[in-house]
Each structure stands twice: as C-alpha cells, then as structure tokens.
Design a protein that fits this description.
This protein is of the alpha+beta class and about 375 residues long. It has helices at about 55-70, 105-115, 155-165, 210-240, 245-250, 260-280, 290, 295-305, 310-365; strands at about 20, 30, 50, 90-95, 100, 120, 125-130, 140-145, 150, 170-175, 180-190, 195-200, 200-205. The strands form 3 sheets. Strands 3-12-13-11-4-9-8-7-6 form a 9-stranded mixed β-sheet, with helices on both faces. Strand 6 and strand 7 form a beta hairpin. The protein is elongated. The model is unreliable at about 1-30 and about 60-80 (pLDDT under 50).
Length: about 375
C-alpha cells in the first residue's frame, strides 16, 4: 500500500521567500516574508486565559472620568483621542529581524519621520505611532532593543514601510531571511466582555484602546516569545544535523565525524545556551514593570502564560542538556579511539624495535650472514 501523499508547504502556510530586489539607487532591498507561518511553535491556541480584573476596573474608571471630567489616574496615560468603537478588530504582528537594534540611530530615524513616530522612550523599547498628526486612524509601533518590532493596527504595506525605511538601517547582526520570525495575532475591543486571550485573539475593553502601556505590556510578552523562537529554530537545526550520529554509532560502532567537527558542534550548543540563559532578555522581566502599576505586570504575566514562555524555556534547556550529553559522549568516544590508535602505534614501534634488535643480535652472533 502506497504511503499517503504529504501535504505541500503551501498547505501548511509556508510561502517561499521572495528574493531581494534592487532599489532605485541600485542597493538591494530586503524582502521580509510577510506571509510566513507564525513563529510560535505547537502552542495550545484554543485555551482560554483570563486577563487581570484590574483592566475592567481601569476601563470603568475611565468611563467615570469621561462622564465627570475627572483628572487622570495611574491607569491612564492616554492621549486625548477618543476610544475606538466596541467591536473593532485589528492585527498585531511581531517581527524578529536582527540580533539587536542600534537605539541611537533608531531614535534619530524616528524623529526624522515626524513627532508622532517617537512618543515615548523606555528601557529596552521605543514607542511611536504610524501616521501624521492630522490623521484620525494610526497604528502603534514598539521597537525592542533585542531586534523585535511589534505593530498594532497597521497594514502589511505600512509595516513594510517601517521595516525597510526605519528599522533596516538600524539593524545590528541582521538575521538571514530564512531565520526571520513573524508572529501574528488579532486584537478585539469590546464594551462588556471580560478581557481574555483565546485563539490568538486578545480581547480588552474598548476604553483601553488608547492606553499604549496596555499594548506595551502585551507586546513585551509577544516580543520575548518571538525572540525565543529564534533560539528554538537554531537548536532544532542542530538536532536535525546530529540526530543520525547515535544511530550510526550504535550500528557500526564508529562515527565518520572528525574531532574538530564535534568540538564546533559543542561550541554552537554552548553559544546558544549562553545566549538564552545569560545574554538574552528573553528570561528577564522587563525594566518597564519595575515602576509600572502592578496591574500591568499581571497582564504581562498572563500573556506569558498564554504563550507558554516558561514551559518553552524549560523544553529548550532540556534539549540543550541532551545535546550536550550526546556531544560529550561522542567526544569521549573519539578521544578513546584516538588513544587506542596511539597505543597501537606505540605497540607496533616496540615490535619493530624488538625485531631490529633481534636481527642485530643475530648478526653479532653470526647467525645472519653479511
């Protein structure tokens, strides 16, 4: 019986990357795979995660303030724009396109585009909007120092404009197109529904639609998740490259891999492990929450829970551990093989020396003719 046909890449949502095209000045314009699969791995997307009840309290307080014209509170750091209508939906897209961004250059680029493109500067992130001051409908953009950009309510064309003309010149150690990670979500503003996340849709009260700190808290968790996907993909690549080595060793008793190649693999695993656990901000609570209201940190933790960030880090470190143990075993096997070869070389040299000595003795005794 013939095996069933395998689904194609397009049926899975994979779209071939488009080649870079030359720009008007002759330079190559980087093409980002906008329709690529979401970065997040096999998460349980249909689970229901309730967001903090403080968001409902904040929305109610904003409604009272709007009615009574009361002064702003800690829950409100919003612009004078009116909240959007209930039922409004939009897209959230998070890109990880570089190891890091040049913050000073990015600050300069955003200021050159206009005053609305850079509204607040936080530790690890810059916040701005897309569009001119006269526009009614603008999207929010969060630029993270560790190479991620989160868009709220922008079209693909607007996202491409920001990525190509603002972000790209500020990239440090740009990722190749095959490593670029993209995570897509939806936001849904409602009037009476409880705030929650389900099926990659974030539902919050429409009165919080202009509070950029709410979006920043959510974006922090989404950006960390997308950044973590980079390390997950790199570890999977190492796993796929080494998965046949134990089987080969079990079947033939040897591996056709030089000691230098094994040492390079050990170095790659150590670099990725140190990047996740020592150098990256994936595991850290962002500095923004040190002085933010507790409700925002609770919101950040709830989104982390939905993205299964802690569980994914545990799985990733377990893979690091298994890879390290396997490569250490292969290195020990190679070292033992090398030691055995040296021992046999010494044995054969001793044998040759004994044979030569016997011939010399025989020659001295006259047993061997001249």
């Amino acid at each position: 019986m013939a095996p069933p046909p395998q689904p194609s890449a397009k049926q899975h949502g994979y779209v071939p990357l488009r080649a870079a095209s030359p720009s008007r000045d002759g330079s190559t314009s980087r093409e980002y795979p906008l329709n690529r699969r979401p970065a997040a791995g096999p998460r349980v997307k249909d689970k229901f995660v309730s967001l903090p009840d403080e968001l409902d309290a904040a929305a109610a307080q904003m409604a009272r303030q709007h009615t009574l014209d009361l002064p702003s509170t800690v829950f409100e750091d919003i612009h004078s724009d009116q909240p959007v209508d209930p039922g409004t939906r939009g897209r959230i897209t998070v890109y990880c396109i570089a190891e890091s961004l040049d913050r000073k250059m990015l600050d300069k680029k955003l200021k050159e585009r206009g005053p609305r493109f850079l509204l607040h500067s936080y530790a690890e992130v810059l916040y701005g909007q897309y569009g001119s001051l006269g526009e009614e409908s603008v999207g929010d953009v969060f630029y993270f120092d560790y190479g991620c950009v989160a868009f709220w309510g922008l079209t693909e064309k607007q996202e491409r404009d920001i990525l190509d003309n603002v972000v790209r010149p500020c990239e440090e150690n740009s990722l190749p197109p095959v490593e670029v990670e993209i995570d897509q979500f939806q936001f849904h503003y409602m009037a009476n529904e409880k705030p929650h996340i389900q099926n990659d849709t974030i539902t919050i009260n429409h009165r919080l639609s202009n509070d950029h700190r709410i979006k920043l808290s959510i974006s922090h968790a989404l950006a960390q998740s997308t950044k973590l996907c980079i390390f997950e993909e790199r570890v999977l690549a190492i796993v796929n490259n080494t998965r046949d080595l134990p089987e080969t060793l079990a079947e033939s008793g040897k591996i056709n891999l030089p000691r230098k190649a094994i040492a390079q693999l050990i170095g790659k695993v150590f670099l990725q492990k140190s990047a996740v656990n020592l150098l990256s901000t994936v595991l850290d609570t962002p500095e923004f929450f040190w002085s933010a209201p507790d409700s925002l940190q609770a919101l950040y933790k709830k989104v982390n829970e939905y993205m299964e960030l802690d569980d994914r880090v545990v799985v990733l470190n377990n893979r690091f551990q298994v890879l390290t143990e396997m490569l250490d075993m292969l290195r020990d096997h190679q070292n033992n093989s090398h030691t055995a070869r040296l021992e046999w070389i010494v044995i054969w040299l001793i044998v040759i020396e004994v044979v030569v000595g016997l011939f010399e003795c025989a020659s001295i005794l006259g047993w061997v003719g001249e």
